[in-house]
Amino acid sequence: MEYMQAPASSSQGNILCCTCGVPIAPNPANMCVACLRTQVDISEGIPKQVTVHFCKQCERYLQPPATWVQCALESRELLALCLKKLKSSMSKVRLIDAGFLWTEPHSKRIKMKLTIQKEVMNGAILQQVFVVEFVIQSQMCDDCHRVEAKDFWKAVVQVRQKTVHKKTFYYLEQLILKHKLHQNALNIKEIHEGIDFYYGSKQHAQKMVDFLQCTVPCRSKASQRLISHDIHSNTYNYKSTFSMEIVPVCKDNVVCLSPRLAQSLGNMGQVCVCIRVTSTIHLIDPRTLQIAEVDGNTYWRNPFNGLFNPSQLEEFIVMDTDIIRDQKLGAGAGMRSNKHTLAEVWVQKTSEMNTSQQYHCRTFLGHLLNIGDLVLGFDFANSNINDEYLNKMNPHHVPDVVLIKKSYDRSRRVKRRNWKLQEMARDREGMDTDDERQYQDFLEDLEEDEALRKNVNIFRGEQLMTAAQTYSRSSITREISEPLFRFLLSGYGSFTVNGCLRCVKDPGGERH
């Protein structure tokens, strides 16, 4: 505690304190600091211990009356929150300085040193420094309380896709994680043919619906159910339900378009292969390399379904291949793919190697296939397909075999995969036994398709140097860049980790 006064001139003398008689410099109170301290306490009325409420789940502080804010220890935001607690009691003093005193992080105490000024006796300005202790008490916020309850929800988004494979759901899960739309969900429940997202407000559910409509081809329906009604205030309490149906077409599906839709897409063939599903359905004609995109509105006006399930893929071996160099398209044809090569191939089933039965077909995989390679495809010649548009097609225009993708050694690819994906925490019900198989198929699609991979956050684990590490989808560390991802797929090379040049080697000594 000290006086705040103008500096005395050299000719000014001292006076005696009116209480204790000690010589002091003249001041309006004519009292020394010790005597004035016994007479006046300018911090009177300011609490020296204050309670601050803190939520352990979301690590936020309560800012009265009902706002929860995120504040780090010894931050400006926490300093402002603590000063607001003292604002009403400091109306008669002037705040000069405020700062934190160090305390143990686990002590549940926050100490703040305040410097204040106030005018006392006969206009003397007194300055005082004191410490206020803030006691942290745990209190669960409303949002976390609803999350813990898991039953208190006001809106649900039901996402469904009537298909066997879940590739679209795996892709959608990564998009939701990338944009952090799962953080507002009270609960996520995975059921047969889809996922349910529960929200505490209709606005959060509507945000998820808008996101789904922009990322995957789908259609939506909304409904609400009255829970309660207050006749005095005329307020209603509803529970809203949003039903989202994703188109039942996944990557690597063979589809048969209606003649009208095929004509509107540039006179492409009716039998097409789905090479990718993003915000639109990407189709390619295996006979001409013609590509087209079908959005959700176009699909629901002219719907089509997959002709085969992924479990019906058969393995073929390439007996002969011939690249088609000059392919002329008819009038009104659309765009052709520059990433694929058209070829005519002779293939034979690996299950019929003891026979002379071979199949001739055109494929868009000419840039990948060589004689002796294994390839997966669908056998039209020996299948009984019940499809409205396929049954009306000219039999000469229906291919015997449609090749989908080249076959690789799955065990070796899993062994060399040093990257992982994040996964949403959700309740699982009615899970199929081949979910892990489908997830591995989705990871292989990411390795092979750069356009699909650019929308997904890919992470690497702590044991990146060990090529034969045990695969685990739970440990997530840091995101890897596209050049590093290409290195991991290339099988050789080096890169830097923490400034040191490293190489990835397998137990056999080969560089990977």
UniProtKB/TrEMBL annotation:
The Nmd3 N-terminal domain, residue ranges: 17-246
Gene Ontology cellular component terms for the protein in this record: cytoplasm; nucleus
Cellular compartment(s): Cytoplasm; Nucleus
GO MF: ribosomal large subunit binding
This protein's UniProt keywords: Cytoplasm, Nucleus, Protein transport, Transport
Domain 60S ribosomal export protein NMD3 OB-fold stretches: 313-406
Protein role: Acts as an adapter for the XPO1/CRM1-mediated export of the 60S ribosomal subunit.
Family under the similarity heading: Belongs to the NMD3 family.
Protein name, as recorded: 60S ribosomal export protein NMD3
Natural source organism: Astatotilapia calliptera (Eastern happy)
Name of the encoding gene: NMD3
